Amino acid sequence: MIPEPAQYILRFDDLCPTVSYSRWQQFLPLIEKFKLQPILAVVPDNQDRHLQASPPDPDFWIQMRQMELGGAMIALHGYNHRCESRGPSLLGLHHGSEFAGVDESTQREWIHEGLAILRGHGLNPRIWVAPRHGFDLNTLSALRKEGISLLSDGFARVPFTRGGLTWIPQQLSAPVEKSRGLWTICIHPNTAHSSLLNRLPIFLRKHEAQFTSVDRVLDEYSPAELGGMERLYEKFALWRAQASHVRRRKRSRRSHSG
Ligand SMILES: [Zn+2]
Q1: N or C: which end of the chain has fewer CB within 10 A?
Q2: How many CA atoms lie within 13 A of 249 on its CB side?
Q3: In this structure, which residues have their CB less than 5 angstroms from ion ligand 1?
Q4: How close is the Cα of 90 to the center of ligand 1, in Å?
Q5: Bigger pLDDT: 89 vs 120
């Protein structure tokens, strides 16, 4: 059953002690005001220089713990976030990723170590968020073996099961009004444009009652394998997303060569 009216989940990516302090802090009052229960995608041991936007915040891990107590769901967002593998991903949106194409035992080691780091900071990571949508069947198997059964990705309009995991779809990178379906809006605080910070409160005010959480979704729906029609929809939506990624890559190659 496709939810109607639409429901929304907010997800924040690339959180680590060096996330852009000024940008990330601007989202916190919104989370509090609208009592949101977002997914917080945390990099356990960041070694990606693109995510080093501010000096390390000594209160970062305390803040994550407080937000988890407040209802946020902590996601394991890769391990080092070094996207050096060129292996094919199930979704095929980016050329490089951290996990897709890496052998299963290494992936499992990284997942095991990543979970241990987050748990060592007093967090309870329950869901997987792949850096650059990059994961493959080995990732799914490694996650299962490490006891993670939830994943935030995919382009269907309903939560579903596949490869032994429950997928909470993630399709949007900015607030967009939808008539029906479950939509996860993914925000990257490091690169969030000021126009997003202007639009988000307006969208939240208008659709406050439609914001939900992963736990509520799991309570209210019984995710199952996708039926034929929704699988077709998913294929089409994924194809559109792949085409727009190709356009974006071409644009950025042109601007870099200029
Ligand atoms: Zn990331």
Answers
A1: C
A2: 10
A3: 13-14, 131
A4: 17
A5: 120
Please count the other Cβ atoms lying within 10 Å of the Cβ belonging to residue 243: 10
- Tell me how far apart the alpha carbons of residues 220 and 214 are, in angstroms, rounded to a whole number: 10
Q: What domain count does the chain have? A: 1
Q: What is the pLDDT of residues 106-132, one digit of tens each?
A: 999 999 999 999 999 999 999 999 999
pLDDT in tens, 190-234: 999 999 999 999 999 999 999 999 999 999 999 999 999 999 999
Residue 36, pLDDT score: 98
246 in a structural domain: no
Determine the distance separating the centroid of ligand 1 and the alpha carbon of 149, expressed in angstroms.
20
* Residue 2 counted as domain residue: no
Is 0.90 surpassed by the pTM of this model?
yes
Q: Where are the alpha helices (DSSP H) in 125-193?
A: 137-145
- CATH no. for residue 90? 3.20.20.370
130 CA distance to ligand 1 middle (Å)? 7
Dihedral pair phi/psi, residue 168, rounded to 5°: -100, 110
Sheet with strand 39-42: strands edge to edge: 160-162, 165-168, 150-152, 127-128, 73-76, 39-42, 7-15, 182-187
Distance CA 129, CA 113 (A): 15
Residue 11 pLDDT: 98
**227 CA distance to ligand 1 middle (Å):** 30
Q: Where in the sequence is the domain holding 90, given as residue range(s)?
A: 7-225
